[in-house]
Design a protein that fits this description.
Strand order of the largest sheet: 25-24-23-26-22-27-28-29-30-31-32
Subunit structure: Homodimer.
Structural class: alpha/beta
Shape: elongated
CATH superfamily of the largest domain: Mur-like, catalytic domain
Function: Catalyzes the ATP-dependent polymerization of arginine and aspartate to multi-L-arginyl-poly-L-aspartic acid (cyanophycin; a water-insoluble reserve polymer).
Keywords: ATP-binding, Ligase, Nucleotide-binding
Protein name: Cyanophycin synthetase
CATH architecture of the largest domain: 3-Layer(aba) Sandwich
Helix content: 25-40%
Number of domains: 5
Family: In the C-terminal section; belongs to the MurCDEF family.
CATH topology of the largest domain: UDP-N-acetylmuramoyl-L-alanine:D-glutamate ligase
């Protein structure tokens, strides 16, 4: 077996709408050994991982996978289920998976399984393959290949691997607070994007986004967090506002602490001036010896050297959560404690308590494991005990003075018991500090009675309060505290998503995208666009290069100024990691023709159509799918497309396709070109109404209607703008000003006339694109003495695709220049030009009219050097920006230099 590819789908993709890890596995000779032919394999697997046999699998019944194992299934399928089980055992439950054979590659499978944390999923996949290898009998280990592929040393420790996976989950999984907020956002349909491996999360998209890090929000003022982190300043501000707080002083050495204690009188509390989560806090100090210990603990946790010595409020410790100036929840926090059995030591009792599955390290679980440290030893030492003391049966031993959950404490919900005075004091404390989300630490004998009567008050106000004590208290009702925080960030009726217009297809994507952007700009919105030439915010290029994949789409969706996202969505990104979004408002499929076939398991145009179909499948129910009625493969997408269908077609009037006619008659939407002068008339149908948009020839980019491919692109763009709600008058005005200039539509039918001959620069990179360009060139040919074409194709295309490109070029141009880019994409140098030349020769073109030139710049220079008055030169570059600069910079000096560049005639 060999792992040939590993990838991660982060959004809807070819195989599923669930994010998945994909491992492409070549079973090799192991294809001959399904599980029922491997002695002892099933039994060993079920012994190692009993839970995996209980998976429903495709049989959709508990234990279905065990049945599949015993009947015989292949090892890729086994690895899928192991990876899911390992993640679940590690604390990151994942249940969905698929294993599919790769077309035309016997024994090769795509093993796919869901994940919650990407690194955890990848690690689980690796461990799954190692486990499979370890369970093979000796006679098969040598042919499995996994020991070589994975540097597997033959010694497999499942428990050790699982512990490693658990640690990885702890490092990468969202904690309870962040997870609760993310889940609430997802319930409300708010998009979620994780921005780092910790807890920085973007909720929403574009200009509607909000950010959180745990319970710190983008609305949390820095000055408020600074105030909250300065405990002495907080206390002074609260005191000046009439809020009851303990008296205290700030000291920097232990002698000052002792002098302060004499003025304040015991019992006292010591804590770091800038501390949090109860670290370094010692309460109930009754002696100078305890004070010295408490001072040392506080100063050890302080970022500076400052320690607060303050009065001790007697009573129970409560955490009151205040959100947006409203009291939301109350929890009484109980310090870590154990109950004796008359036999076990305190250390043993702690170990037993820590076995509770609800307890974890740090903040990963709803409760934290208890650690015996110096503070615990000091506190129980006040009662004459040590960790090795044996408490009597039923004796409750409190281990800490502080009640923080992060040190092993528990929580009891008291939300319905709080006295209104106490709730108001906590609310005002949060407002005084200025926090939008605040955890108010409140000590009093009885939370149901006013502290004005019983004594007590606010001891701290905390930024970034943990929510787990409210979400899942040890006792009492859980509180949905995430809901008010999300409602504060996204009030009911507010928007969290920017409209997403996603465009796919073989040809026309870039032009349609730029047309759509151009129209929507007329509405005053800020538009983000991804395209083959880069990422644009309005008309500003923010990132140059091919930007048709999910990474570029995320740039747009993260940009805080974007109001509408127009995303060109190419095959490559879809196959590599899926979509960058879960739902689109408008999906457009322009066409599907043979291109990129033979790559990534896509062997036929039907396969290619299935990949591109993902875009329209992702359209939300209230959205629109815009499909080309003139293309059979996009027509087939209608069965799976989301939202309302809008057809577009170049065949209007009496030639209207039957499916469009039926659709329109039933009140459906369509945008079609009806025949007539100036390229015909573009009309919109909706609810059985017909409305004229404009003459096709009035769109400059159509060259008076002659560039029919741009008429089709305009139909798709107009349909998208209309579906987006742009008025027809605005659409007409915008399209009247859309030209095929390099500035508006780089690399798409750009015309340059400054050198005494005409140059057209167009990114015609496949057969369909070159055919469409050829129609324009043939329509103009009677105006020019000669047509000269510089043509190429990427080396990762099939031999027959290269030859077809050569044949098409031979039927368009009088003089042919076939080039080869420096990156031949795996082919030997010269092979691309050879196949292009062979296709042209087969089409009957004379070798005297064919030139082979390696390098895009050199071939463009040679074409320009050939140019004479009355010629038409067509350049089809990969790097359209460089080619356009080269055309613009061309001078007579450059002509002479280029003329000396060797042209290699075809043999």
């Amino acid at each position: 077996m060999a792992v040939t590819e590993v990838g991660v789908y982060r959004g809807p993709h070819y195989y599923s709408h669930t994010p998945m890890v994909r491992i492409q596995l070549d079973l090799g000779r192991m294809e001959e050994f399904p599980t029922n032919r491997i002695p002892g394999f099933t039994e060993a697997l079920l012994e190692a991982l009993p839970g995996v046999g209980r998976h429903a699998c495709s049989l959709k019944v508990r234990g279905g996978f065990e049945k599949r194992l015993r009947e015989g299934t292949w090892l890729g399928h086994v690895a899928e289920h192991i990876a899911l089980e390992l993640q679940t055992l590690a604390g990151s439950r994942a249940v969905r998976g698929k294993t599919r054979s790769v077309k035309n590659r016997p024994g090769v499978y795509n093993v796919m399984f869901a994940y919650n944390e990407e690194r955890v999923g990848l690690a689980a996949g690796r461990i799954a393959l190692e486990l499979v290898n370890s369970l093979l009998p000796p006679e098969l280990e040598g042919i499995s290949g996994l020991d070589r592929i994975h540097d597997f040393d033959g010694a497999f420790d499942l428990e050790g691997r699982l512990d490693t996976l658990k640690r990885l989950v702890r490092r990468t999984a969202l904690g309870p607070t962040t997870r609760s907020l993310v889940e609430e956002a997802e319930r409300r349909g708010i998009p979620v994007m994780r921005l780092d491996e910790k807890s920085l999360i973007q909720l929403g998209q574009g200009r509607f986004q909000q950010r959180i890090r745990a319970s710190i929000t983008g609305r949390t003022a820095q000055v408020a967090t600074d105030i909250a982190s300065d405990k002495n300043l907080t206390k002074r501000l609260l005191d000046e506002s009439g809020i009851p707080v303990p008296r205290g002083v700030v000291v920097r050495n232990v002698e000052d602490a002792v002098r302060a204690a004499r003025r304040l009188r015991f019992p006292l509390v010591t804590k770091p001036l800038d501390g949090n989560h109860g670290r370094g806090v010692t309460i109930g100090i009754e002696s100078e010896e305890q004070l010295r210990f408490g001072f040392a603990e506080a100063q050890a946790q302080a970022k500076g050297r400052d320690v607060i010595v303050e009065q001790f409020f007697a009573g129970n410790d409560h955490r009151i959560l205040v959100v947006d100036g409203k009291m939301i929840a109350v929890a009484e926090r109980i310090p870590a404690q154990v109950t004796g059995d008359g036999v076990s030591t305190i250390r043993q009792l702690v170990a037993e308590v820590n076995r509770d599955p609800r307890r974890g390290d740090g903040h990963e679980n709803v409760m934290t494991r208890i650690r015996i440290d110096a503070l615990v030893e000091e506190y129980i030492g006040r009662s004459g005990m040590t960790p090795d003391s044996i408490p009597e049966a039923e004796q409750v031993v409190q281990l800490r003075a502080t009640a923080n959950l992060s040190t092993g404490g528990t929580a009891v919900d008291r939300t319905n018991e709080i006295h209104p005075d106490n709730a108001e004091i906590a609310r005002r404390a949060a407002l005084v500090v200025g926090l939008d989300v605040a955890g108010v630490d409140f000590v009093c004998p009885d939370i149901s009675r006013s502290v004005r009567e019983t004594g007590g008050g606010v001891i701290e106000v905390n930024a970034a309060p943990g929510l787990r004590m409210h979400i899942d208290p040890s006792e009492g009702a859980p509180r949905d505290v995430a809901k008010p925080i999300i409602e504060m960030l996204f009030p009911r009726g507010s928007r969290s998503r920017v409209p997403i217009i996603a465009i796919t297809g073989t040809n026309g994507k870039s032009t349609v995208g730029r047309m759509v952007k151009h129209i929507i700009r007329y509405t005053g919105c800020t538009v983000g666009l991804t395209s083959t030439t880069g990422v644009y915010i309005n008309d500003i290029l923010t990132h140059e290069g091919d930007a048709t994949g999910p990474r570029s789409a995320r740039m747009i969706l993260r940009d805080p100024t974007v109001e509408v996202a127009v995303l060109e969505t190419a095959r490559g990104g879809l196959l590599r990691e899926g979509l960058a979004f879960s739902q689109a408002d408008i999906g457009i499929a322009t066409n599907v023709t043979a291109d990129h076939l033979g790559l990534k398991g896509i062997a036929t145009v039907e396969d290619l159509a299935s990949v591109k179909q993902v875009v329209v499948e992702s359209v939300r129910r209230s959205g629109h799918s815009i499909l080309n009625a003139d293309d059979p493969l996009t027509v087939r997408m209608a069965r799976r497309a989301g939202g309302r269908i809008i057809w577009f077609s170049l065949c209007g009037g009496a030639e209207l396709p039957p499916l469009v006619r039926e659709h329109v008659d039933e009140g459906g939407m369509a945008v079609v070109r009806e025949p007539g002068p100036d390229g015909g008339t573009i009309v919109v149908y909706e609810d059985s109404r017909r409305e004229v948009v404009m003459k096709a020839g009035d769109i400059p980019a159509t060259l008076h209607g002659m560039a029919e491919f741009n008429v089709a692109n305009a139909l798709a763009a107009i349909a998208a703008a209309y579906a987006h709600g742009v008025p027809i008058l605005t659409i007409r005005s915008a399209m009247t000003n859309f030209r095929s200039t390099f500035e508006q539509n780089p690399g798409r039918l750009n015309v340059h006339d400054a050198h005494g001959f005409r140059v057209i620069v167009d990114y015609a990179h496949n057969a369909a694109g070159l055919n469409a360009l050829g129609k324009v060139v043939r329509g103009l040919s009677d105006r020019y003495k000669r047509t000269i074409g510089s043509v190429s194709m990427a080396g990762d295309r099939r031999d027959e695709d290269l030859m077809e490109m050569g044949r098409i070029a031979a039927g368009i141009f009088d003089v042919l220049i076939f080039r080869e880019d420096p990156s031949t994409r795996g082919r030997p140098r010269g092979e691309v030009m050879h196949y292009l030349q062979q296709g042209a020769l087969e089409a009957g073109r004379s070798p005297d009219h064919i030139h082979l030139i390696a390098g895009e710049a050199a071939s463009t220079a040679a074409a320009l050097a050939m140019g004479r008055p009355g010629d038409l030169i067509v350049v089809t570059p990969t790097d359209v920006h460089a080619a356009w600069r080269q055309v613009n910079d061309f001078t007579p000096v450059a002509v002479r230099a280029a003329t000396r560049a060797p042209l290699v005639p075809a043999e």
